[in-house]
């Protein structure tokens, strides 16, 4: 058993160096060339545990008992910490930390004792860091956030469990998002009940943002306020108030945490993108490029007619730059995979993408990038979700649904409507409708294409009035997406609205002159024969060519 104090100090030297890194247990700092490397507190503790036992194997149970004493944790918690450490140490090939199958880990680097540094010598976790190749480490550029204990306004100490539980629930849910660096609750809770300024809290925790909140309960209702503050400036980025009847406390806590997290992630994404947009092009790192590329990618579906391919290509080039800077940056690999899958899925007029539509090698590239993302970070839910989407369009429907379920297990708060469309195509339209109607309240800025997925699901469920109403909304939001017009035409035709159906069909043919019903059905390959016949019937009634 590796002996450590509650501060996770290492046996032997208080600071050691290895492979260009210095680990200082006294000041809880991991540095490289004088620059501090960001690690969540528990990940830092796991690294200390491994380094203290350098050269010998340490079982998973030993590490868990040391780092999480008297706390029950899943294997996933330890695996996430080891993944964080490997990213921080550039250990993609597992040269420093080797996994011993069904046993544990061994830290193999040679250690050299060095004098412990002073706290002033280490930069904050958000300091920039260059790898030996000169690229910026995306890990260090992730926005760091701390969820401070929500204040129990009523003052009844017996009610602290609710406000503390809500705080921890929000922090845990945020930690599921790979783009965020969430400060451990143990560190954030040291500020419970004090009046330290946001700037000072940010400095001491290494947090770019903090979440503050207050809970007031009476016998019948609960009122919760939450706000997001940028620590450097003290600026409130977002705030909201929630009031609910106090029935089913656990369910209420779960609902509020889920809703708050959805809004926080959306607002954080917008704020971080604005931060990246203000930077000079020469100073952009992998994380900044990823943000810019993802933003352009998000605009592809709503692009005007004729601009779909141009935006898709711009997104791909920016994301490819991010991957060139950091080949192991899983979020960028995930988004880059999506650019190839979209080019395979939707024909466009961009000359540089000519020949990619329905080209098997393009789908192969999308698959390869998604697999690379998962290899780089097995805990990234978005990576598994992207893999699922690629598999869905390779018609490996069972594998796709399994990958979507894995993504959902890793991050139940992730609002990915593509899972819903996969369910609908697999014959589970009612389940798809339930999922999409749960997603929309969680994401204040859902992808407009999700409305198309909802219209499709309503149609496949035989709910033609809802399908038509949703389709009308969809075609207004997605002028360049011909599939939205196709489903609109079918829904209108099934309701006997012949003029509207034929107008929608004509619009679809203007966007896709070579459209045929047989080609479309062969593309989506519905699993339920009855649903396929109903769709074919609607498309024929609308006057679309067979």
Question: Could you provide a short overview of the structure?
Answer:
This protein folds into four domains: 15-123, Arc Repressor Mutant, subunit A; 144-277, Rossmann fold, CATH 3.40.50.10610; 282-405, Alpha Horseshoe (Serine Threonine Protein Phosphatase 5, Tetratricopeptide repeat), CATH 1.25.40.10; 415-546, Tetratricopeptide repeat domain (Serine Threonine Protein Phosphatase 5, Tetratricopeptide repeat), CATH 1.25.40. The protein is built from 22 helices and 14 strands. It has helices at residues 41-52, 60-67, 75-88, 138-141, 160-175, 185-188, 198-205, 249-277, 286-298, 308-325, 330-345, 360-376, 381-393, 397-410, 418-425, 429-442, 449-460, 464-477, 482-494, 498-511, 517-524, 529-541, and strands spanning 15-18, 21-24, 29-32, 35-36, 57-59, 97-100, 104-107, 112-113, 144-147, 151-152, 181-182, 209-217, 221-230, 235-245.
**Overall number of domains:** 4
CATH architectural grouping of the largest domain: 3-Layer(aba) Sandwich
Question: How would a crystallographer describe the biggest sheet?
Answer: 6 strands, mixed
Quote the average pLDDT.
82
CATH homologous superfamily caption of the largest domain: ABC-type transport auxiliary lipoprotein component
Number of helices: 22
CATH top level of the largest domain is Alpha Beta
Q: Share of helix among residues?
A: 40-55%
Count of strand segments: 14
Q: Strand-residue fraction?
A: 5-15%
CATH T-level fold name of the largest domain: Rossmann fold
Spans where pLDDT lies below 50 across 5 or more residues:
1-13, 116-140
CA distance, first residue to last residue = 71 Å
What structural category characterises the helix and strand content?
A: alpha+beta
Radius of gyration (Å) = 25 Å
- Global outline: globular
């Amino acid at each position: 058993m590796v002996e450590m104090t509650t501060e996770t100090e290492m046996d032997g030297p208080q600071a050691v160096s290895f492979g260009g890194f210095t680990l200082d247990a006294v000041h809880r700092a991991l540095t490289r060339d004088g620059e501090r490397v960001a690690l969540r507190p528990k990940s830092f503790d796991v690294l200390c545990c491994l380094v203290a036992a350098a050269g010998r194997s340490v079982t998973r149970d030993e590490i868990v008992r040391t780092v999480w004493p008297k706390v029950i944790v899943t294997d996933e918690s330890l695996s996430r910490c080891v993944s964080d450490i490997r990213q921080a140490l550039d250990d993609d090939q597992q040269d420093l930390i080797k996994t011993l199958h069904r046993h544990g880990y061994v830290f193999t680097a040679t250690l050299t004792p060095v004098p412990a540094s002073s706290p002033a010598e280490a930069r904050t976790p958000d300091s920039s860091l260059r790898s030996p190749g000169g690229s910026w480490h995306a890990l260090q550029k992730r926005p760091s956030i701390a969820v401070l204990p929500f204040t129990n306004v009523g003052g009844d100490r017996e009610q602290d469990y609710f406000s503390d539980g809500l705080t921890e629930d929000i922090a845990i849910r945020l930690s599921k998002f790979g783009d965020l660096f969430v400060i451990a609750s143990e560190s954030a809770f040291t500020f419970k009940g004090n009046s330290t300024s946001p700037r000072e809290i940010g400095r001491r925790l290494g947090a770019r943002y903090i979440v503050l909140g207050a809970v007031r309960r009476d016998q019948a209702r609960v009122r919760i306020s939450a706000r997001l503050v940028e620590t450097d400036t003290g600026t409130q980025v977002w705030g909201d108030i929630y009031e609910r009847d106090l029935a089913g406390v656990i369910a209420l806590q779960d609902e509020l945490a889920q809703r708050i997290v959805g809004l926080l992630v959306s607002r954080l994404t917008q704020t971080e993108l604005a931060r990246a947009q203000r930077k000079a092009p020469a100073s952009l790192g992998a994380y900044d490029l990823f943000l810019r590329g993802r933003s352009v990618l998000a605009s592809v579906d709503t692009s005007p007619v004729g601009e779909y391919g141009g935006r898709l290509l711009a997104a791909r080039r920016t994301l490819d730059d991010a991957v060139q800077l950091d080949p192991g940056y899983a979020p960028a690999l995930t988004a880059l995979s999506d650019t190839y899958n979209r080019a395979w899925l939707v024909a466009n007029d961009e000359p540089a993408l000519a020949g990619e539509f329905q080209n098997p090698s393009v789908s192969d590239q999308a698959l390869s990038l998604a697999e690379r993302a998962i290899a780089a970070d097995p805990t990234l839910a978005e990576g598994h979700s992207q893999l699922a989407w690629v598999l869905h369009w390779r018609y490996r429907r069972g594998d796709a649904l399994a990958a979507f379920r894995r993504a959902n297990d890793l991050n139940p708060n992730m609002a990915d409507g593509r899972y819903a469309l996969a369910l609908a195509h697999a014959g589970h339209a009612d389940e798809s409708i339930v999922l999409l109607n749960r997603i929309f309240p969680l994401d204040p800025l859902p992808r407009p294409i999700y409305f198309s997925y909802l219209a499709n699901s309503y149609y496949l469920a035989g709910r033609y009035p809802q399908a038509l109403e949703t389709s009308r909304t969809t075609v207004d939001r997605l002028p360049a997406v011909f599939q939205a017009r196709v489903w609109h035409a079918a829904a209108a035709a099934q309701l006997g609205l012949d003029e509207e159906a034929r107008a929608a069909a004509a619009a679809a043919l203007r966007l896709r002159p070579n459209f045929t019903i047989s080609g479309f059905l062969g593309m989506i390959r519905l699993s339920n024969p009855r649903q396929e016949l109903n769709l074919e019937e609607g498309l024929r009634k609308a006057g679309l060519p067979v």
